[in-house]
Structures are given as C-alpha cells and as structure tokens.
C-alpha cells in the first residue's frame, strides 16, 4: 500500500501537468506557446511513465517513498513560492498572463529536478548499503575461516590423543572433543541464521519481550561460568521490534562480557524501555574492549588480512541489531570495564 501511494504522488503530478498543458495546447496559436505546452505535456507523460517504472522496480518500498518525498517537496515548495509571488503581484497592481499554466510549467520543472535528486539520493544509499554488505561478506569469510580452522585443529589434536593412547582419562578428552564439535555446530547455525537475516530485502519485525529473552540467555550461559556474578535489571514494558535472531545478539554480548569481565567475571545487565527505544546495556569489570576491536566493528578501520577482530560475537550482534533497524554502542568508563548497549525501536 505504501509503495502504491508513493507512486501515486508521481501519477498525480504527471496527470496534473498533462491536463493543464493539454488544455493550454488546444487553445494556443503561437509557436512559443505551443512549444511550452508540448514541453509541459512531455513532462507530464514522463511522470506517468516514471510512476509505472518505479512501481515495478526492484527498489525497496522505503526508497520508492524517498523519491516520492522529493517529488512532493518540489511541488509544495515551488507552489508556495509561486503563490507568494502571485499575491505580491496582485497587491502591487500587476498581472500575470496565464498564471495557472505558467505556474504549472514551473512546478513541473521543479518537481522533475527534485525527482532526479531523489533518484540520485537512493542510488547513493544503495551504493553505501552495497559497500556495507561487501564488508559483512569480507568479515564473515575471514572470521569463519579463522574460527573454524582453529576449532578443526583442536579437534585433530584431541583426535590424535584419543587414537594414540589408552589413557584412562580418555572419557574426559572425548567430552572435550564433543564440546568443540558442538561449538562448531553452533557457530555454523548462528552464521546461517544471521546470513539469511542480513540478505533479506524486507526484514519482518514483531514485538519481542526483551527482559525474558535476556533472562533466558543468562540461564543458558550460567553453567559455563559458575563463579561469575550476573545481575539483571529489566523493565517489564521493554518490548522491542525485532525477531527470534535477537537472542543471538544478546547471548553473544553477554558471553563476551562473561569471558572478558574479570576473574571471576562481574556482569551487570540493564533492560530499559525509553519513549521510542528499548536498550539493553551490558557492563563488565574486565579490561575493556580494545580500541582496534571497536574501530573495526564501528567501521572506523578497514578490515584487512592482518587486522581483524578476534571472534564473531560482536559482528554477529551488530548485524542482527542493524537488520532490525537498531544500533550497537560502546562506552568506555574512566576505570576498568566496558559497556555495550544494544538499542532497538520500541514496540507500541
């Protein structure tokens, strides 16, 4: 419906231009007047054709609405200026010849210019988004290769031990092998989920109760960090517009805080419902997130073969949050520790 309404504004603009120009064309005799009327008629037909092309294009609905917004800006702004000029002329005793036709042609030219600006604006946005997608692919490929290669090496080393000795502790080693294998499967599952999410053109968002989701993530991680101290403060009204993959983002951030939050770790989690957003702030008492890590995740430093983050956690969290229209923020306190805040649109 929004897409149809957006294209409808271009149709109305073209129809108005065509109607006024065609009517003027039927009543003129001079060459100049005829040429101007034909010019206005062509602009109107161009808008009608462009509306149809835009409706069937592969552009996302929000980009179509962006072009429509630029069109409306051109029509409204130029019309307002022309009305002021007309009022001034009449108050000073002056007259304008064919004010409706003249004004329509001027508005048509202005609307055309604004639509072209809108199209260029959308192209710029799409180019920027494409660059981000390429960055994600680059990081995903390099980090997956790094993590999976390391885990595979661990598996191979433990496999050699299992096959080469009848040590009574073989059961323990077997558990470690199964744990690493489980980690590999979890990494593969998460990467698949996030990859599908970031490659989806239109991501569906629905109300998600963030507090219970955080509590569930903490409960699942506690057995791995029995000595850690974790406190959770959650607003019952905190419902964000997101989806099931949001749990990946939250769990990765909490696990990162538990791993690097001191020995033993101390982690504080706050879930708050603000006027328009929901925030999840995860603070720890560890050494903090390295500046290079923050710069890479924030896009302030280019990802190269020699400079990459140590794991997928922060990247996965960032991509999930951004897919749902949110953002990830880093705060470094004066002392030790770090705070990572996940910010999403609040569900009404």
Question: In words, what does this structure look like?
Answer:
There is one protein chain. This protein is an alpha+beta fold. The protein folds into two domains: 2-132, no CATH class; 205-348, Histidine kinase-like ATPase, C-terminal domain (Heat Shock Protein 90). It is 64% helix and 12% strand. It contains nine helices and seven strands, in the order αααααβαββαββααββ. The strands form two sheets. It has a five-stranded mixed sheet with strand order 2-4-5-7-6, with helices on one face. Strands 1-3 form a two-stranded antiparallel sheet. A hairpin with a 6-residue loop joins strand 6 and strand 7 (338-345). Helix 5 (170-199) runs parallel beside helix 9 and helix 6 packs across helix 7. The longest helix has 66 residues, at 99-164. The protein is elongated and about 105 Å long.
Could you give a short description of this structure?
With 348 residues, the chain is α+β, with helices and mostly antiparallel strands.
Strand order of the largest sheet: 2-4-5-7-6
Using the CA coordinates, give the radius of gyration: 30 Å
Q: What CATH architecture of the largest domain do you see?
A: 2-Layer Sandwich
Q: DSSP strand (E) fraction? A: 5-15%
Q: The CATH topology of the largest domain is what?
A: Heat Shock Protein 90
Distance between the termini: 21 Å
Low-confidence stretches: 303-310
CATH homologous superfamily of the largest domain - what is it? Histidine kinase-like ATPase, C-terminal domain
Q: Write down the overall geometry.
A: elongated
CATH class designation of the largest domain:
Alpha Beta
Q: What is the string of helix and strand elements?
A: HHHHHEHEEHEEHHEE
Mean pLDDT rating: 78
Report on the biggest sheet: 5 strands, mixed
How many beta-strand segments? Answer: 7
